[in-house]
Amino acid sequence: MSAFSKGALKGCVVIALLVFGAGCSTHPNDDVIAKNVQGKVAADPATKDSTVVVSSKDGKVSLKGSVKDGATQQRLEQIAREEPGVTGVDDQTAVLSEPATTPDQAATTAPPPAEAPKPQPIVVPAGSTLTVTVDQALSSDKSQTGQTFLATLAQPVTVRGTTAIPKGSSVKGTVITAKKKGKVKGEGQLALSLTSITIRGKNYPIETGTLDSTVKGKGKRTAATTGGGAAGGALIGGLAGGGKGAGIGALVGAGAGFVGGALTGNKQIEIPAESPITFTLSKSLTLPPGKE
Fold first, then answer.
1. Are 72 and 47 in contact (CB under 8 A)?
2. β-strand pairing of 276-280 with 60-67
3. What's the fold here for domain 122-287?
4. Is the pTM of this model over 0.70?
5. Torsion angles phi and psi, residue 178, rounded to 5
6. Phi and psi dihedrals of 252, rounded to 5?
7. Most CB atoms closer than 10 Å: which of 44, 191, 239, 241?
């Protein structure tokens, strides 16, 4: 081989080495790319709290892990693309939280329905009157102290326009005192009170004033109420004369609708069956909310 040929060959080899070296110098270093992107992700305020692993192969960056929202995910991709030598980005990160509601979405979201007010219990106040008709005859000589008697509510009881206790409700009472009058001396006495009432199938204890009727020697009769407060509304109608703290004379034939108490031939106190008498609540009665 001539000297010229050898020189030319050496020149070609040198040129080839230079070209190869130049090509190698422009090939991306995947380790450097991954390290740089990882560092920038950790330093950026928007992505520093994300759990992300960065890798690179032939200049293509892969992102794996989780981010808090879509905006963080977009910023992560931007950091990777801006890194010198990166040829592409494969974002495999997952968004943990739900997308934020836009103003338009918020405006169209219907508010939750208002909670309906809870119905309040019905309170029948003390002083309310209960007019009942007794289901059996009661008397000073035939009834027994402690005896239970039944009655039926003759008039409904309303509270603020609502029927709290409907007409026809079953009522139970007690004979507080039943004392027969002697033929020569002594007095006859009959005292009653109500103890419970059944309203729409449920029984409720009640407290009322006591109706107390007395007949004394020589036909003197009195009728009064105790514990109820409203004497006129609680007296047994038809009994007359005297006091015990009540103006009995004003009740005689007054048309108040309270009939029943009367004197028998031997001057005993008797209330016939179906007679209406009125009691007064001495303690308020609380009932659950209900319809009429």
1. yes
2. unpaired
3. Lipocalin (2.40.128)
4. no
5. -135, 110
6. -65, 120
7. 239
Beta-bridged to residue 162, according to DSSP, are: 159
Domain ranges of the chain: 27-95, 122-287
Q: Does domain 27-95 have CATH number 1.25.60.10?
A: no
Nearest partner of 210 among 239, 240, 234, judged by Cα: 234
Tens digit of each residue's pLDDT (9 = 90 or more) over 269-279: 899 999 999 99
87 vs 81: CA distance, rounded Å: 8
191: Cα within 13 Å, side-chain hemisphere: 16
65-121 pLDDT per residue, tens: 888 898 988 998 999 999 999 999 999 988 886 555 566 655 666 677 888 888 889
